Amino acid sequence: MSFWEYLSTRHQQLLTDAFQHASAVFQCMVIATLLGVLIAVVAYRSGWGGSLAISSTATILTIPSLAAIGLLIPLVGLGVAPTVITLTLYGLLPIVRNAIVGLRGVDPALVDAATGIGMSRTARLCRVELPLAWPPILTGIRVSTQMLMGIAAIAAYASGPGLGNEIFRGIASLGSANAINQVLAGTLGIVVLALLFDAAYVLLGRLTIPRGIRA
After folding, report:
1. How many CB atoms lie within 10 A of CB 95?
2. Which residues contact 9 (CB under 8 A, 6 or more apart)?
3. How far lies 81's CA from each of 36, 76, 77, 107, 160, in Å?
4. Do 6 and 185 form a contact (C-beta atoms < 8 A)?
5. C-alpha distance from residue 3 to each of 18, 78, 102, 179 (Å)
6. Residue 55's CB: how many other CB atoms inside 10 A?
7. What is the pLDDT of residues 156-179, one digit of tens each?
8. Which range among 12-16, 20-24, 49-53, 174-178 shows the weakest confidence by mean pLDDT?
9. What is the C-alpha separation between 137 and 147, in angstroms, rounded?
10. Is the pLDDT of residue 135 over 60?
11. Amino acid 212: pLDDT
């Protein structure tokens, strides 16, 4: 069976796996973004605090993803839970680092001006600092998403959702008629999803970042 014939006979299952893969990555990115920005907001004013936040999240990436999922299985079981925890933790570093860089890069004169007109610290953060730091934060989100697209395939090891199941089935049946087709379909599906997500982030950046800041 050729690759195109395989796609035509398995397209429903592949679309389901692709949707689950994209959904898992998207939901984990939302959680990682909220946590990452919160960590950056707490840490960016302190030199050692920022270094600690970046070092801690960087340390997570030194743990092999397969090992991380394997260690979580006895604690939270198989399926969605170890997938969500692993992807969220692995997505933190680029967001935390870029958010800290972005917040520290805000012009102090603008913050002083906001203080001078009576803005509270929370108002300054939400209305001045975070909007100006949004471009680097968005870049961090894009990097994290590309990372998680590939890491999410490992979730199949813990019976997680996504295109990794197609890849693992192909690897497990190497030598059979459709083994290469399965691996290729899963891999290409992940690449296509990564490109679609990145295109969506480019569009989001054009809609949310003023032209002057982009320039």
Report:
1. 27
2. 1
3. 19, 6, 7, 41, 8
4. yes
5. 17, 31, 45, 10
6. 10
7. 888 788 899 899 889 888 878 788
8. 174-178
9. 15
10. yes
11. 63
Q: Please state the separation of Cα 183 from the chain's center in Å.
A: 23
Residue 89 class from Cβ within 10 Å (0-12 exposed, 13-18 middle, 19+ buried)?
Answer: buried
Structure token digits, residue 164: 């990794």
Percentages of the chain per state (helix, strand, coil), in multiples of 5: 85, 0, 15
State both tokens at 107: 């012009």
Global pTM reads 0.89
Asked whether 84 and 28 are in contact (CB, 8 A), the reply is yes
Q: How confident is the model at residue 213 (pLDDT cuts 50, 70, 90)?
A: low
Q: Which residue in this structure is represented by tokens 């195109």?
A: 4
